[in-house]
Amino acid sequence: MSVCQFIQRLLNIKAFSVKDYTFRNWFTELWLEVKPFKNGALCPRCNRRGKIVHTVETPRIWRDLPVCGRQVFFIYSPREIICRTHGRVQEFIPWAALYSRVTYRFEYSLLVYCSTMTQKAAAQFLKISQSTLSDLLHRIITRTRQGHKVRNLRSIGIDEISYCKGHKYATIVYDLEKSCVVWIGKGKARDTIDTFFRNELSNFQRGRIISASCDMCETFIGAIEKWCRNATLVLDRFHIVKALNEAVDEVRKEEWRKASKDDRKALKGLRWLLYRHSSNRTEENTKSLRSLYRGNRRIHRAWILKDEFEQFWEFKDQASAKDFLDSWYKTANRSRLESIKKFVKTIKKHEHRLLPFVETGLTNAISEGINRIIKIVKNRASGFSNLEAFSDLIFLTVGDLDIPGQIPAKFHAL
After folding, report:
1. Beta-ladder partners of 23
2. Which one-letter DSSP state was computed for residue 274?
3. 264-292 burial: b if 16+ Cβ within 10 Å, else e
4. pLDDT recorded at residue 289
5. Which of 224, 231, 240, 272 is the most exposed place for a label (fewest CB within 10 A)?
6. Are residues 162 and 75 in the same domain?
């Protein structure tokens, strides 16, 4: 076995051959002279052999994965050929994408590393600078997602997320059936979400959407009802419960401000206790809340109303749920608690978007779960200065396209 054959087997090179090798920079770099099998000269589009008309004089260089602490580079002089179908093109390079300066398996490793660790750590593993890695990552993701279109979208969720200080937001559209992100737009204005429905989806695709979920943002509600005529819009349960909790907490704050120093001792620690769902409270917690009947009737009244509203989520048909809401509205409006009465007005306004929940059970829980992963990505990078870089990592981590899977399978070995 020759040294070149040994290197070829050691580096698991199968799609091309190694002709020669040299060490440079005090044996810290291994340079391999490679060539495609069978003399190459294949068209990159149709894979047919063409007539060689020109050979590049200056060899091109591709960076490969480091081995045993040494950087590895491939050297080859690509040739231009005449294809009967596609005319004059550069021959097919089996180890790298067209115009790329790194090999496929370097790209695959970069994508896998960046999806699980910081870019700084990935750059150290690959022995390149962090700025170079960021540039390569953007180019790879842009290339693999080029021409990709949203497909089979039937259930969507819409939410916004901040990506930078100074109230900079991005609108994110989720596929709730596949649990992935399908689109990211800058800002949270109506024009942003309209751009998605207008440019990313056809009339047929918009008509296929049968369910949608979002918070009580009028921007998202208006866009969904305008563009998705066949979709059942369900307001997210989490945001409804959050709004009720805030109304109850407003009652607690009012009583806290009015209470004397001694009375405040009895109210201390109630905030998180009031937020808890009845199923998550201990007997001791329930006793503390019931004691408010004598200590503070207003907070006790707000707590009772909150616990009663929990029954709404257990109904199975809209008629019974509607009767329950009508009864709860009357009790809440007689409570003389302004924050609760304000919540009632909000629910009445969106009642027709809330009632479908009892039959569909649709929530934005999947979106919130994906948002948690997105926040981990953001925290891992200590924030992003622009949406472009943030979007790259979102699509890489929770996007609707398996980006590392777009690299040819024979180069997936790390």
Report:
1. 30
2. H
3. eeebeebeeebeeeeeeeeeeeeebbeeb
4. 81
5. 272
6. no
The Cα 64–Cα 104 span in angstroms is 8
Choose the final residue of a domain: 79, 101, 123: 101
Confidence label for 299 from pLDDT (cuts 50, 70 and 90): confident
What is residue 115's three-state secondary structure?
helix
What phi and psi values does residue 388 have, to the nearest 5 degrees?
Answer: -60, -50
Question: Is 42 part of a structural domain of the chain?
Answer: yes
- Is the same domain home to 241 and 230? no
The conformation of residue 310, written as its DSSP 8-state character, comes to G
To the nearest whole percent, how much of the chain has pLDDT over 90? 49
pLDDT at 413: 58
Confidence (pLDDT) at 89: 87
In this model, does residue 92 exceed pLDDT 80?
yes
How many Å apart are CA 179 and CA 7, to the nearest integer? 43
Q: How many domains does the chain have?
A: 3
Euclidean distance between CA atoms 118 and 377, whole angstroms: 9
Same domain, 369 and 348: no
Encoded tokens for 414: 């790390």
User: Is residue 57 over pLDDT 70?
Assistant: yes
Co-location of 242 and 169 in the same domain: no
Q: How far apart are CA 137 and CA 134, in angstroms?
A: 5
Q: Which residues, at least 6 apart from 239, have a Cβ–Cβ distance to it below 8 Å?
A: 215, 216, 364
Residue 342: domain span: 237-360
- 374: in domain: yes
Task: Assess whether 241 and 356 both reside in one domain.
Answer: yes
Report CA-CA distances (Å) from 387 to 116, 138, 391. Answer: 20, 12, 6
Q: Does residue 30 lie within any of the structural domains?
A: yes
Looking at the DSSP bridge assignments, the partners of residue 235 are 214
| Average pLDDT of every residue of the chain | 88
Tell me the pTM. Answer: 0.86
My answer on whether 227 and 275 are in the same domain is: no
* Beta-carbon count within 10 A of 164 CB: 15
Domain end among 65, 83, 101: 101
Q: How much is the average pLDDT of 380-387? A: 80
What was the pLDDT predicted at 293? 75
Tell whether 230 and 371 lie within a shared domain: yes
Tokens of 354: 């809330």
Indicate whether 300 and 228 sit together in one domain. Answer: no
